[in-house]
Amino acid sequence: MTKWFEEAKYGLFIHFGLYSMLAGEYKGRKTDRIAEWIMNNFAIPAEEYEVLMKDFNPEKFLPMEIARKCTEWGMKYIVLTSKHHEGFANFNSACSPYNSVNACGRDLVGELKEACRAYGLKFGLYYSQAQDWHDPDGAMKCRPADKIDYQAYLDRKCMPQLREIMEQYNPDLIWFDTPMDTTPEQSEKMVQLVRSYNPDVVISGRIGNGLGDYMTTGDNFIPRLPYDGLWEVPATINDTWGYNRYDKNWKDPYDIIKLLVKINARGGNYLLNVGPMGDGSIPEESIAVLDTVGKYVTANAEAIYGTQNTGIYPYELDFAEFTCKPQKLFVHVFKPKIRFELLNIANRFTNAYLVETGEKLDFRVGYTCEGHDFVEIEIPERLRDKAYYAVCLEYPEERPIYSDLKL
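The structure corresponding to this sequence follows.
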């Protein structure tokens, strides 16, 4: 049931809600924290915050266009916030009138599901199972746990909405978040509920209590070493998840390419977020970044999708990262090179080629003066000023064989 997730390697996260309308500011006060937490961080009363619902009009939230761009960007799955911590649902919810259908007449979750199916993308839904700042019994960072009836909230809203999500949309993935004080028994009931509708649904690690199908790292945190098993890094293009008009700290697309390859090399997936503006449009800066990253990903698809944990290579390389598949080592080259040499790889290399075109490359193998294995790849003259490409080295062995450093 998790094979598609294991092979996908790159997905799109979308944080969209009433907080998108505020864009990081409320009554002249700017937040210096992530924008989607503005209700919590500014302690905005629920009855005051919910007034935003009257002006919610995401006329430029265009699911078919989002899905089309997602395929251009080389992403294999989309995860949309069906309900974030603010409690507002982007779908038709019978158990709570606080939803997009009542606000603007649109079922954003349903529309995006159809778009994902049309473009062959896996469809995931984020659902904040514990935190709900609109519900008086939902968990909240600044609300003492002993002052709420958390089980009543679960029975009244969380569990019914999970049923609605599974019955109406049957997503491929449920991205739970912030379990807070949820007990193992409560988490297990959520798992049992969603699996009763779809035994193959993939469940994120943030369901809590060790019950997820894969590990979700800390936001924007990458494991230092390769990590066995399924895992994913949720990350932002700038410094926030929900749209903030004041956050202009956009990541360089080439840095994102390096991060994607590094995450893939260590065995994980990269779930990269966009925060649409209040009208539903994706910021132009996000599109520009993802367009550039997408060109690399689609050109070097063989070296991205379905790749595996590469293990621990004994040297730090400033010009490259590895990904691998059985009998193939992919070298992602990030600096112009006339040739490059890799030491302490003891495979019996049989072929080398440029991933983007399939062009064969000259190579030689041997031993250094110090007695280390090496393979040297010659770069064609016309490519010697080029950076950001991938080379494939083929060998009969199943995996890369790294030899130990020697005195």
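The longest strand covers residues 77-83.
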